[in-house]
């Protein structure tokens, strides 16, 4: 019975050791992810390790897909990620990416798309978005958007109040840009990117809802309606003055911070990278995280956000599972230590019992010898 108890404890050690060897790697990874949940750069690196381990061709397939979609910038971002991760990419594929980037950055292509963005006020690539920014800096784009959406509002038609609010805010910030000789230009550019993301359907639902609530707070709708009623694209100076009166600058602090964060992303990843971050963001805090990620990862940011989505910015949906891995590791370690303790106690008890039995036998032998001597011949 004694040896059965010892064998049971030894079996517990073996079983817990085996389980701990299986659980420990997952627990270590879970702990690292939980520790990095407030650092987008470190979190994305850990998640990339897990994603890239599962598919050796993931980067190459995404480069092919980006080229097929005509997004040379995204393909180049994946090339930068492959270079950073020492992932082999075929030379012919690298050559195709290089040619596509050169074509996208060619003078004729840039000029054509720039003009499209300047005239229409919407864009989906670097050149056209640059045109929309220039148009907004000269108030043409914002006046056009305010007048168009304002007319819809006055006539009871469907109105994009978010575009209306962003354009009104943009006009006020543009004035500050000129007064400060460009000091507010980053905010101006960021607001334009948010507005364009809304126009082309690239603004995340959560962020759009937040921006819409903010727009209602800092835009005086009745005053704006009166301004729009008499406004015109042909009279930008008069229209701008009237619209600025409807903008409550003191309530636009959060929107200004959003514009700055969007510009920080664009500075490191380009305008399409900023659009990607606005698409996956559910609020201004996500955009701020995207700015931190972009500053750390640079040109690789678009590829990272393509692979991980919003998970590149924060811990999404897996905290409970990660905690379970850690709890399982702790529980298994506790079982191992308990088994070691039980084994040690039972072996010690067996050793003590054996020594006690030896002493008793020696004492018994000595007593029998003494009795024998005492009972000897008189």
Automatic annotation (TrEMBL):
The chain crosses the membrane at residues 312-337. Keywords: Membrane, Signal, Transmembrane, Transmembrane helix. Residues 1-21 form the signal peptide. This is Bll5589 protein.
